[in-house]
């Protein structure tokens, strides 16, 4: 595409990102399987199983998103109603978490330093969400 002077549109870029996300999770799952085959204790077994479930959930989401993107019109970045609802709920939950942290700080149950650290965590989580349209 570069040689021809063409640029990928938003939908193409979204597809590439989701393909890369899925590939990276698949690599993580392969590594998790290697770890599971090694000798370790019950604590490690629990951690390895927890990671498998988490990664599999991500992979399923990325594959569903790719299915939606594959059917998109040229240049369009579609969002399914389920995806939009999940984003709305996620943002509402983050807002409630922030409100609770501020309340705890205001009543003296959370020092400013703790508030800042926890707000950064929430900011990072929110930053992973797509920009609002």
Automatic annotation (TrEMBL):
Region annotated Disordered, chain positions:
113-133
Tell me the superkingdom of the source: Bacteria
Q: What is this protein called?
A: Monovalent cation:H+ antiporter, CPA1 family
């Amino acid at each position: 595409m570069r040689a021809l002077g063409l640029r990928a549109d938003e939908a193409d870029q979204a597809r590439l990102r989701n393909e890369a996300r899925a590939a990276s999770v698949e690599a993580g799952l392969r590594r998790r399987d290697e770890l599971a085959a090694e000798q370790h204790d019950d604590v490690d077994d629990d951690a390895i199983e927890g990671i498998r479930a988490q990664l599999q959930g991500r992979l399923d989401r990325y594959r569903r998103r790719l299915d939606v993107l594959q059917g998109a019109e040229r240049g369009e970045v579609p969002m399914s109603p389920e995806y939009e609802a999940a984003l709305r709920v996620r943002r509402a939950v983050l807002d409630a978490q922030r409100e609770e942290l501020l309340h705890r700080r205001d009543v003296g149950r959370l020092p400013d330093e703790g508030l800042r650290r926890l707000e950064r965590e929430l900011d990072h989580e929110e930053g992973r969400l797509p920009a609002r349209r």
